[in-house]
């Protein structure tokens, strides 16, 4: 751990550090990740209807829950990178200036370390499921980087910002699908819906 990161953590008490991390990972946005469960449910339905494969409920439930955890960790990494990349302009916003990085509570270095921790945790957890979930998790992280980081920074391009942000729900659906059924991509009807 670098000296700057150690001093950033020791410079604030543990409670304040935890509160700032929680604020940066935005748990109030986590319900979006329940979309993963739709992907898992569709995979179960598809498998039972087309291949007539009976699935163990406990296995399906465990894989779906693991995929939701992957989505939460990865989305949290994306929220951290969003806050990190927006901090320079957030200082002028009436409410966003109170965010941990914009307010100076959390250093940019520490935020980058936290992004790394959540990104690696998301990828590591996905590796426990299967290769397709790892690839989908990578796509979710790349989506967050393309949306937030210069020189691409899709959030600054009118109309493209909304389109690029909307790709996250199909990615979540794929996480759920591939957690259950990794040998085939979802049918086009599922993807377009």
Keywords:
69% helix; 193 residues; elongated; mainly alpha
Word description of this protein:
With 193 residues, the protein is an all-alpha fold. It is built from 9 helices and no strands. It is elongated and about 55 Å long.
Summarize the structure in short:
With about 190 residues, this protein is mainly α.
Find the structural class using helix and strand composition. mainly alpha
Any low-confidence stretches, pLDDT <50, length ≥5? none
How many DSSP helices?
A: 9
Name the average pLDDT: 91
Q: Which radius of gyration do the C-alpha atoms yield?
A: 18 Å
Topology order in helix (H) and strand (E) letters: HHHHHHHHH
The global form is elongated
Strand content: under 5%
> Helix share of residues?
55-70%
Number of distinct beta strands:
0
The description of the largest β-sheet is: none
Ends distance:
45 Å
List the helices and strands and how they pair.
Blueprint: H1 3-10, H2 14-25, H3 35-51, H4 57-90, H5 108-127, H6 131-148, H7 160-166, H8 168-180, H9 188-192
Helix pairs in contact: 3-4, 3-8, 4-5, 4-6, 4-8, 5-6, 6-8
């Amino acid at each position: 751990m670098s000296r700057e990161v150690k001093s950033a953590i020791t410079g604030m008490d543990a409670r304040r550090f935890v509160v700032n991390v929680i604020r940066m990972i935005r748990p109030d946005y986590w319900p979006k990740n329940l979309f993963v469960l739709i992907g898992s449910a569709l995979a179960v339905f598809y498998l039972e209807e087309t291949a007539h494969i009976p699935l163990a409920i406990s296995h399906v439930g465990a894989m779906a829950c693991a995929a939701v955890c992957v989505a939460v960790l990865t989305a949290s990494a994306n929220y951290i990178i969003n806050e990190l990349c927006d901090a320079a302009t957030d200082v002028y916003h009436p409410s966003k200036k109170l965010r941990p990085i914009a307010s100076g509570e959390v250093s940019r270095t520490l935020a980058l370390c936290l992004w790394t921790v959540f990104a690696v945790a998301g990828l590591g957890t996905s590796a426990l499921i299967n290769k397709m979930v790892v690839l989908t998790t990578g796509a979710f992280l790349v989506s967050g980087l393309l949306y937030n980081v210069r020189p691409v920074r899709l959030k600054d391009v009118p109309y493209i910002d909304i389109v690029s942000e909307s790709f996250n729900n199909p990615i979540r659906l794929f996480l759920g699908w591939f957690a259950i059924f990794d040998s085939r991509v979802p049918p086009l009807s599922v993807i377009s819906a």
